[in-house]
Amino acid sequence: MNLSTAVRVIRASAVYDLVVTTAFALPWTVGLVFAGIGWGHGFLGLSGALPSTDQVFTVLFANLTGSLVVVWSVVRLLRPSLVLGVADTCARFLFALGMAWALAVGGSVILVGFLVAEVVWGLVQGVVVVSALRTGSGTRAPSAAS
C-alpha cells in the first residue's frame, strides 16, 4: 500500500476517534454519554458494572482521556504521517488491553463493542502503515492540500 492510502486510513481513524470521544472531553457531556451507555446496557440486558458520574475521579479521568484523544485526533487530521499512524496503532492496542482488563474484572459487556472497534481499527491501520513503511514511502505525509 502507498502513502496516500495510509494517510486516508490515519485520517479516517482520527475522524472515528473524534466522533466517539468528543463527548467524553467535558464534564457536562460525559454524564450524557454514561447515561446513554447505561441505557444501552439495560436495553440489551447486559451484565457487568457501569461507570458512575457520582464519582468525581471517574468523570475527571473520562474528561482527561477524552480531551487527549480529541487533541490527538485533530493533530492526526491536520498532520497525518506514518509515525503518527504507528503511535496511534500502539495506543489503540493499549486502549484495547485496558478494555479487556475491565471486562475481565467485571466491567459491562457493552465494552465489547468498543473493544472490537479498537482492535479492528488497530489492525487495519497497522497493516496499512506497516505496508507503507515497507514500500519505503517515508515518514512524512503529503501536504494537507493533497
UniProtKB/TrEMBL annotation:
Alphabetically ordered keywords of this record: Membrane, Transmembrane, Transmembrane helix
Spans traversing the lipid bilayer: 12-37, 57-75, 82-104, 110-133
Descriptive protein name: Integral membrane protein
Organism: Nocardiopsis exhalans
